[in-house]
Amino acid sequence: MEHVKDYLKDINKDFESRARLGIMSVLMVEDGVDFTFLKETLQLTDGNLASHLRALEGADYLRVEKQFVGRKPNTRYIATPEGRDAFQSHLAALERLILGNKPD
Description:
single chain, alpha+beta, Arc Repressor Mutant, subunit A, 3 strands, 17% strand, elongated, WH_DNA-bd_dom, WH_DNA-bd_sf, Helix-turn-helix domain-containing protein, WH-like_DNA-bd_sf
């Protein structure tokens, strides 16, 4: 267990919350999704989802595309290459933490 600190240093704080972990997980398997899809899939409120999306956008982990579908506004979210790399590194750090501290 003495190496736990070494493993924890690679954990990305931007992905610590369940909401952000869920957002990035969805964006890793989908090319892009709209706000409603994320809200329903992750079962988050508008405000909660919006605040987490803003944080991830501010970290350059996702980009936002706004357009009109018919006459209705539509906002789509797409993981950036930096976001994909950061999330994969985060998952790898979690895996090292778990596997490196597994009882024999």
